[in-house]
Amino acid sequence: MSVDTELGVGLGLRLQIPPAAWGRLASICRTLEWVAVDLDRMELAVFLGTNCGRLMDEALTLIGDASEEVEQPLRRARALLAGLDARPPHQQRNIVQSLRELLQEVIPLSQLGAPLPNLPPVAQLVAPDKPDPAPPSSDDSPSEGPSAGAAVDGGDVSAPQKSTGTATKESKAASSAESPTSPPEPLPSESSEPSESLPSEPLPPELVPLGHEEATGLPVDTLDGVDEMLADRLGEVGIHTIADLMMRPPATHERVPLNAIRPGMEEGMFTVRSTIRSCCIRLSPFSRRWEVVLNGVDGAVLVCRWISSAPRGWETWNHDDQIGLIGQIELTEDGPVMYEAEPVGIDGRGSGLLPMYGLPGLDDAQLREIIAEALRDHTDRLLDPLPTPVLERYRLQPLSEALRDAHFPANNTGRGRLRLAFEELLLLQLGIIWRSGRGQPERGISHDISHKGVAQISAQHQVFLDNGQEAAFSQIRRDLVRPEPMTRLLQGDVGTGKGLVTLMSAAMVGESKLQVAMVGPDPLAVERRYLFAEGMLRSIGLVPLMVTEQLSHGQADAIRRGEAHVVFGTQRILANDVHWRRLGLVIVEERGELGTVMPQQLARSKGPRPDLLVTTAAPIPSSLAFTVFGEFDVSIVPATRQLRADGHIYDAPQRREAYAAALAHLEAGRQAFVVLPVRNGRDLLDPSDALNMAKALQAEAFPNQRIGIYCSPMSREERFRVFEDFQHRRIDILVCTTYIEDAPPLDNATVMIVEYADLHDMVRLHRLRGHIGRGIRPGQGLYILSDTPEDKARSLVEQVIHEQNGFRLAELDLQARGSRALLGERADELPDFNWADPPRDRQQLLRARAEAFNLIRLNPTLRRWPALVNAIRQRWGDWFGDTLPAAGKSRSS
To answer: Bridge partners of 324?
Structure first.
């Protein structure tokens, strides 16, 4: 249409559109025109669809109930914008062209800004390196094709294009000779046809997220192969929609042996692969039969017949195509025949790995049929929630390929499952971090770091950090310097020196005139930590305070005045009625139930939030470390010295043999522990019983050895005195309970007798072993079972002996005791994974976690990635409940 006509149409439509909406639509048009000038700009417009889609949403909201003439093209344009960013470049160009045509119906180009001036053709913008079109047929008639600078690239153009300087001298002279008052040449309209054009691809289908109500969110019985009875059985195992079916992982994959098509081939269940000689449908009066003949060697052929229905992929099979089939080969008079064979993969071109789902009441072959149908019909429309840079950074398959490979893998690498596991873990980590408000501005304390106290402790007490401890300490120092509050989990195997790292951190913060709270799991653990740290802290001028029972008025006053620099206690010292002068750091040791102190509990209505450092006595399972502590940064202290502790199991009647083995170490000048279990938080023996046991041991097993007793009913002064005697070798054997695990290890104590070992859990046995296996000399653990041990308990003790890696033992302990033993009532909060297996996918979990923190740092509200937000809600919405913030809004908004 002419410029005047466009002006009229645009003015009419503009009266129906509010000015604010018109402005947003104009911004979209200008953006699309900027991209269309040079299609290489598409690579620079990474979030073109997201940004324009947001403006379109705002415009549609402002327009409200407009005429169909306005609303219909805008709705179609919004649908195209939804999947634009995920498309490959050549498809993006076609979509941009379609968007320009749709918006031209509402906002003609001539209506954007002031009327176009009368410019000569050389000043118009043309696409680079494009030949000029043929001149008009006559001077009197207007040109029906594109103007002199119009670009030809697979479709019409809607704006003047950039000049390349290829115009001839004659055309420039003719342009300059035109009268300045002559009317401008008509602009090429959106409907004008270029003189020559490249064939354009058809627009791809609109991409929609997994679970969309009009695609994979449809009921499973909408698939052709699902009848009402099968739909009911699927519903019983939690499969209600097509998305549920696609996201149900196979339990395992099996491979049927391969057999070549040759003369004299045997009968049996085999996989065959060959090219198609012929394929046809044979009709009879009452039935029809699908038949394929496969080529073999030396003129042999294999006939494959289907009577019930066509095999999957039939419509894509042609002469000389290579396919694979799995089925029972029967030898007949006419040669080998295979009836009702199953194509390998989705359409016969797979690897031959058969997915086995193991769902009760459901046949695996039937499941493979309907899953293949779902993958074939619906994966092309799936919108991948992961941003393209993430896929490229970790070399992950797109979602559609990953789903196909997870069910019908091309090989044994499992790339599809790993990609889906990464996505599942990433979405969970993103949701946890997003929910916690990480990345949002939060007021913390920027500490003035001084290394004077740490250096003084090292010089006076000859305590030094090894390389692994120093690396973790450096990460903590960097967090302390930042103005944002620290939220960090310190992990490491037993004996790696996590306690020394936390003590150095406390000394550094205390030296900067701020207070430190050292929170232990129970009063006895608090005592042991205080006993180990008191001398070091006092040597650099810091005042430690231990609170194991009710807080006295004097202790509360010392905390309030700031006279106590480092306070050791249980969670009681973090109660609201305890007033700190200026609390700068909270160090929490977790044991038993995890997650006892979380960052939200430290928030202050006035003043900055103190830094939080959480450590564990032993490694915790990965699935708990990255869910319970999902919003925490993680530091891992590696083991610089290998755990060297042999283990031997003795039944109750063999107790004398165990003590005889320990006596050999004692006679060589070593020391030993005799450890009794703790049940329900209490020692099994009181001091009088322990004394009687010590006398019996000295009379029957260790006549020439000095024996001491260490148990919780003893007074604090008595326990301190006994352990000090053991440290200085005034005692050879220490009869104690498992509370001894809180004490620092001694190099000379190389043997440990664990009574009733089957009554201990695996992690506790591993912690006890750390007292004898980290010294200069190798240790030996002697595990004496109870009178009637259970087979399972014996097996767990054997696993501890053979597995000395604490991280792997933590996973085994979780499987043995269950999550409730580690989380209590919060065990029900643990997520159920479809594709991910945290112990097996630990590296994937670490990558997903790092990427989640990276994305949150780039965009704390996740507003930049709406597909990620939708995927989090779709996958983990039930698990998070109502705790997730609104999309695109900060936690405080």
So the answer is: 273
